Amino acid sequence: MPASGTKKGGAKSASAKLKPSRARKPSAGKVSGAQGSLPDGPAMNALELLEADHRTVEELFSQFEDETSDAAKRDIAGAICVALKIHARLEEELFYPAIAKVLEDTSLVDEALVEHASAKDLIAQIEAGTPGEALFDARVKVLGEYVDHHVTEEEDEIFPQCRSANLDLDALGAAMASRRQELSLGFVVSNPVIGLANTRGDANA
């Protein structure tokens, strides 16, 4: 999911669209342990929920880059994969169908779905691998570049159109938060991603 956007004029390969990533935004702090969670606060609208996801995953990638222990890398990589799978499901099931009705350029949604497919391939390879194996770290790094691109495109191009459109972002956010809880129950995880089970900070084991 990688740096900024292209629009009309035909599909490009994911690698062709990669550009230097923007600086990652500061996160609320280190995500670690089964109790890691997003901050408590009022219910988020759809864009706030997705932005919070983006910051959390960016922090996990940063932690992976700094980590030297294979055991810790395994947990962080697993957290990244689960977080992205839940995030992608939320977007594909709820967010993209809703915004496709109001976006001026629906090719943005098509491109996002192609980016999701590319990321899912890498996620499957990471989940099948082990830290210390050939290409494991490289796969996580490339996944991070995909995420940087995807995040930049969403936040710089898609989200502004959503804010100006006739779209109930509060209701959509509530539906996405509820769906996140359902999806999270499908994962048995004892690592940082447990905090993504609830955008208001209630960890679900």
Report on the architecture of this protein.
- The protein has helices at 14-17, 46-66, 70-100, 107-128, 136-164, 169-184.
- It has 205 residues and is mainly α.
- It has one domain (33-197).
- The longest helix is centred in the middle third of the chain and has 31 residues, at 70-100.
- It is elongated, with a radius of gyration of 16 Å.
- The model is unreliable at 1-40 and 189-205 (pLDDT under 50).
- Could you tell me the number of beta strands? 0
Cα end-to-end separation: 28 Å
Q: Tell me the major beta sheet.
A: none
Q: What series of H and E elements makes up the topology?
A: HHHHHH
Total number of domains: 1
Query: In what range is the share of β-strand residues?
Result: under 5%
Overall, the morphology is elongated
Unreliable stretches (pLDDT < 50, length at least 5) are: 1-40, 189-205
Helix content: 55-70%
Number of helices: 6
Quote the average pLDDT: 79
Radius of gyration: 16 Å
Structure class: mainly alpha
What does this entry show, briefly?
This protein is mostly helical.
Topology:
Layout lengths: L13 H4 L28 H21 L3 H31 L6 H22 L7 H29 L4 H16 L21
Name the features.
6 helices, disordered N terminus, 205 residues, mainly alpha
